[in-house]
Design brief:
Layout: H1 15-27, H2 32-67, H3 73-84
Helix pairs in contact: 1-2
Length: 92
């Protein structure tokens, strides 16, 4: 069996949530299974992006702690304005 083959998994839902999913599925002419898979996929992708952003912030903070190097908003704005004006700017 391929390693990426879908495998069944159970989830316990209260009756209210089940009814809500059924209504969504009916209104979209989809199965409840499709709605739940779509919801899980979107949630996981969103959370993966959130975690990647969080890890990026942690790496930036650690780098700042090690080097002390940083750029202020005003310095970045000035540098970007020069770039936009077509000036050859190598460093901030």
């Amino acid at each position: 069996m391929p390693t990426n083959a879908a495998k069944p998994m159970s989830v316990k839902l209260d009756q209210d949530m089940r009814v809500r999913i059924e209504k969504l599925a009916e209104s979209r002419h989809r199965s409840m299974h499709w709605v739940m898979r779509e919801a899980i996929q979107q949630y996981v992708e969103q959370e993966e992006k959130r975690e990647a952003f969080r890890q990026s912030g942690i790496r930036a903070w650690n780098e700042y702690q090690e080097t002390g190097l940083h750029v202020t908003l005003e310095e970045a704005d000035t540098w970007l304005a020069k770039l936009e004006a077509g000036q050859d700017v190598n460093r901030l």
